[in-house]
């Protein structure tokens, strides 16, 4: 184990920040990986990366060993909306998983990016290089991927403090009478169905705002413009089911909502805005509805 002593000038620093700037010669992402694996001790105890240090503390850590990565580049068509030296904005097609995981070892957005882009920001999870946020497999739309660690940390900070804004179009089952509203209900793992999330007491704070774009009275469906205050797993899908208006086509949430469309939830991340983490310029991107979604709306009209 390597040993570092927290000095007066280091007091108040986060553990991962201290480790990356105090002789370990490691990037912050690698330090976070070591901490997550329990290979960093503060006064002999495992701590979180966010721990604020005090003068006199002893930080010991093991040498970093790069995790073996079996990610293979794959020639997967991608709709690149914007790209520079630091980041890539992609309009993801429905049906494409963002990164490898259980049941999806390949054929993902990450595999496609590695085929055309060799440099992606290192991540705590080697299966998620550059990934700032995700959208579900059958949800289409915009997401940003970081090429450099500096860009990744900057974008993650905006995601955490909610200064990154994401807006979605969702076709909801039923007629929603309100013109706009807020769904404020905590989300956690569904204890009866491990693959699902649910509104549960003691869950993580979750807020979704919506406004009605159009009501399709004969088909009993409502097109919504939804924006996220928080970014919980399946948040819009869970919240709309919670108020009795699940997303049309959703195979996991809701009942009777697959009559109009049965090939996945009609949910599209159409607008993404953030401040470029390097240039500090405000950036706003929009992506049109995919063909399948548009055709459904045309048929309802």
Summarize the structure in words.
The chain is α+β, with helices and mostly antiparallel strands. It is built from six helices and 15 strands. Strand 10 (187-189) and strand 11 form a beta hairpin. Helix 1 crosses helix 2 (28-36). The protein is elongated, with a radius of gyration of 21 Å. The N and C termini lie far apart (67 Å). The mean pLDDT is 91.
Separation, N- and C-terminal Cα atoms: 67 Å
Number of DSSP helical runs: 6
Structural class: alpha+beta
Largest sheet: 9 strands, mixed
The stretches of 5 or more residues where confidence is low (pLDDT under 50) are none
Helix content: 10-25%
Helix and strand pattern: EHHEEEEEHEHEEEEEEHEEH
Radius of gyration: 21 Å
Strand fraction equals: 25-35%
Number of strands: 15
Overall pLDDT level: 91
In one word, what is the shape?
elongated
Structure at a glance:
The mean pLDDT is 91. 18% of the residues lie in helices and 27% in strands.
């Amino acid at each position: 184990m390597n040993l570092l002593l927290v000095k007066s000038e280091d007091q108040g620093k986060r553990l991962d920040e201290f480790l990356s700037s105090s002789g370990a010669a490691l990037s912050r992402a690698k330090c976070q990986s070591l901490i997550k694996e329990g290979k960093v001790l503060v006064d002999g105890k495992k701590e979180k990366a966010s721990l604020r240090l005090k003068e006199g503390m002893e930080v010991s850590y093991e040498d970093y060993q790069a995790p073996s990565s079996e990610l293979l580049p794959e020639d997967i068509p991608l709709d690149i909306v914007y790209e520079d030296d630091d980041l890539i904005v992609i309009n993801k097609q429905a049906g494409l998983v963002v990164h490898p995981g259980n049941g999806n070892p390949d054929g993902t957005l990450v595999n496609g990016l590695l085929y055309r882009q060799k440099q992606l920001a290192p991540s705590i999870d080697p299966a998620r290089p550059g990934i700032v946020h995700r959208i579900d497999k059958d949800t289409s739309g915009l997401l940003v991927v970081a090429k450099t660690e500096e860009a990744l940390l900057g974008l993650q900070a905006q995601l955490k403090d909610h200064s990154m804004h994401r807006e979605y179009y969702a076709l909801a089952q039923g007629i929603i009478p309100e013109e706009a509203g807020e769904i404020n209900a905590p989300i956690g793992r569904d204890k009866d169905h491990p693959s699902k999330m649910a509104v549960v007491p003691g869950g993580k704070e979750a807020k979704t705002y919506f406004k009605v774009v159009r009501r399709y009275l004969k088909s009993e469906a409502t097109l919504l413009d939804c924006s996220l205050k928080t970014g919980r797993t399946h948040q819009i899908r869970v919240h709309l089911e919670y108020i009795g208006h699940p997303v049309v086509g959703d195979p996991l949430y809701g009942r009777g909502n697959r009559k109009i469309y049965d090939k996945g939830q009609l949910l599209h991340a159409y607008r993404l805005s953030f401040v470029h983490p390097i240039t500090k310029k405000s950036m706003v991107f929009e992506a049109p509805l995919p063909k399948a979604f548009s055709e459904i709306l045309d048929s309802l009209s």
